[in-house]
Amino acid sequence: MYQIFREAWERNIGAVYIGDPGKLLSEFENSAESKIEVWLEDRIQEEIEYYVRGDPEDVTWFPNTEPEQKRDWLETMVTIDDPTDITKYTILVDEVEQHYEDFLAAIETDDNNPLRVINDEVPNTLKVWSFGMLSAYEFLGEADWRRLKELRVPPLDITEITNRLEEHDESPTHLANIIWWMGRGRTGLIIKLIDELPSDINENLAEWVQSMADTESQGTAIINDIWANLKSEHWETACQTLAFQRGYEEWLMQDTQGYSAETMSNLVTNVIFETADFADIDQDRTVKRIIRRNVERVFDAVTRPAQPTFPYKGLMFENEEVEGLFSLIEDQILTFEPKGPTRRTAIEALDVSPDEFNTEFYTLEDSKTPIEGDCLSPKLSILDNAFQPIALNPDLVTTESTESLRESMEFALEFDSKAAHSDMSVYFCPTEDVLNHQLRVVKNEYDITSPNVVIAPEELTENISEEYNTFRQLDLLTIASNESSMLWDFVINLRGALEEQGLNPDQAVNEASRQQLLEAVDTRDARNTIDTLFDQLYRVATEEATKATQEYINRYSLPNESTLLWENARFQDDSPFWTSGTIRELTRTQAYLLVLSDLPEFSRPYGNLHTTVQAAIDEDLISGGKAFPYTEFLSELYSESGFSGTLTTERNHYFDEGRLVDGVRNTQNALFRLAMEFNIETTTNALNDLDATAESGDITVLDINVPENALAFLRALLMSKIATDGGEVFNLAGELRDLGNKLEVYKSDFDAHLDTIDAHDDVLTQPSCADVGNWPNLDSNKYLAYKQTLGNLSKGVDDLREQCELNRGISPYAWVYLLMLREFVDQISDVVDKYEMELNSVTLGNVKLLKATYTDLYQAVEGSDVIVQNFGSENKLLAQLEGVGNDIFNFDSMSNIPLPSHIDQLSTIDRSSQKYVEEVEDIRELVELLHSQQQAVDSAAEDLKVDLRELLQHAVEDQEATA
């Protein structure tokens, strides 16, 4: 830029030099002029007048120098006396890469793009803009590239770097080669690297090399830490090798004879010329010059000044090294040659296969005589991996324009960042629409196991909606920014390239995607761009994913552990912590709810709920097994004094001094907030549903892929949080009240059953007339046990409800028994219905009829004169009748009838009674007939007596009359 500035004035072209482009814009913004082209034209005229006047204080658009030097320069170089004699101008804008953000902020719309306006609207002026390669790409759009002619400053050679290193205190001239590669030959960066060399560089070479892996130049690493792929004991020697020193043998090419850099350049250049097919003769010469000078640059940079020969044998017949060589040459062409058809042809000419190279090289080399002497160099493939190119153009990746792809892009580019964490997803979102779409996708997942990193341009991340705050605060969504417009253009073009090549752009891109794309694209410069920028994309994705993963794991892991809570080894077994059996999700969850609850008061009625339920199982009041899977649950999780040692041990993993440890509490809070984001009422209803399972996807915020125990623990965490802090979301007191009412209703049902049994028992007693028969005893203890159990449970549930209102900390415990007793009640409901039906099916009508008939018979005989008159002794007859009673009421084989198990015996008794009813009735009827006949005889005798009396009376009366 200084040379152009000087030569312009030597030709009487008015040149102004702007070393701070940011100030150019700020000056314009502070002026009264609204059009930058008018303002700039006036300012150039104003500056030229100051130049011609030769006043250093007024001249401001000038290279940075001392006032006296400026005065001398103006007096010497500006030879024109009248500024109107100058008709052509040059404006030199230097170090744009240091100030281009100011321009970027000013070119938000094409209509106001100051670069475009200056280039198009300021007449008679040559505009020269100085960029670093990356900042040039950042700054210039496709349209602006077409407005400019690109000139590239050639790289420094090794000799120039060596000379500058000699001025350093340590004179580390042996670093010339590695510094050239770190700077990729670029003057500014090389000078910066030399100026910043540590004072102890000679003693700590490897340490310095390793430190440079953490340093970037405009988004590209100074050196890739490829030594990290080796065992750590080789790192130091590997870094020495990269510095062109003896070190790690596997990375070295070394020999006792070699060729000079010039000879190697000639040989390799001729190989390329022999294998290439140049079609345009005029273009060929330019292409060949491009190829030759860049081959020379590579061999100049891989040949040490102290031993200026190259170990060529390490290149021959080593396919990987041949490929590395051509990749390095291509990098140089891309970095230092202007883009255009000649550069493209030069790059295409490098498409030489290793076999072709070896054949031609061997033929050409045969006539050469190698130089004797020790020579070494890092392998070219190693240099290619360690030092990636900087001059890249994402537009080369696809045939469609970047702007067209940008407008049509709907979805984010997902990057496979499994190196950070297997469940971490990284999304690149270049536009506002894509970003908003991806944020909505993340928000609708409600998945604690699926964290996301969303990367977007910085200006898009400044005003993210608060609706995503929950996910950001929970480390489930990390929104990162990246300022590199080249990276964003590559993201856009990469997605376009995937689609263009028939690959699925909606799948996460990974190394396989890169390889598929590299095989599919046609040109070397496109492949080089993909290969290099993919690495940059990988670094950005992995760096952001790694940071996000660390935050994520720190939030959701147990103390002093580096694994997520649900990935903890304790949750990986198929069986739960308290048994080796196969247990359903709900029961596993209930066990963890006991773990997470405040310790219950086992001396209170609710503290004995477990013993009541256990007794009900032991007494077969309810069926265990799948119907009520709590047998092992109660026996393994409780002891005589309260919780078992197994449960207490499990509890200790998640509590510290009676408080949930941070990772567990954070997980619990996250699940609760996700449920709130989704729908807390719907979630609570699903959690409270006996048939709903997270494994089946019935609980949205737990529709995740984790082991069974982990899923149960997460479900328990969410339930315990809802139970304790859910407020009106979950009416636990109301649920417990309803449960208690149901228990009381069923207790009343068993009261009614007992009344029915008492009625049956009254029937099955001896007749009131005589002590006859062997009558059974109805055993209703089972019904009584149900009644007592239901009463105890009702009392315990009521107590639990009252205590929950006093201490929400035992609400998780209450939810365990709410669910358990709902299953208990479901069984009891069936039992009540079954028992009622069975009891109602037994009427004992025949027994009652037989007893009534027998009683009537007995009473008919007892005290009957007719019986005495006809059968003699009444007592004897009654004794005989009692014998009959003993026979027909002989239920000795059923002396004790346990109900309901032997309720069929009541039907047997009733049926056996039925066959005696008719016989006893017949006897009773005979007795009645006898009584009836006796009554008839008695009545006839009475009538006869009356007749006789009347006859006698008539006879007396007749005698008296005769007398």
Describe this structure in words.
With about 950 residues, the protein is of the alpha/beta class. The chain folds into five domains: about 1-130, no CATH class; about 160-185 and about 230-385, no CATH class; about 395-555, no CATH class; about 565-600 and about 640-730, no CATH class; about 730-930, no CATH class. It is about 55% helix and about 5% strand. The protein has 39 helices and 18 strands. It has a four-stranded mixed β-sheet with strand order 9-10-11-12, with helices on both faces. Strands 1-2-3 form a three-stranded parallel β-sheet, sandwiched between helices. A three-stranded antiparallel β-sheet has the order 7-6-8. Helix 15 (about 280-300) packs across helix 16 and helix 15 (about 280-300) packs across helix 17 (about 340-350). The termini are far apart.
Q: Main beta sheet, described? A: 4 strands, mixed
The chain-level mean pLDDT equals: 87
Number of domains: 5
Separation, N- and C-terminal Cα atoms = 193 Å
Low-pLDDT ranges = none
Rg of Cα set: 52 Å
Give the assembly state of these chains: single chain
Q: How many H/I helices?
A: 39
What form results from the Cα inertia axes? elongated
- SS class: alpha/beta
Q: What percentage of the residues does DSSP assign to strands (E)? A: 5-15%
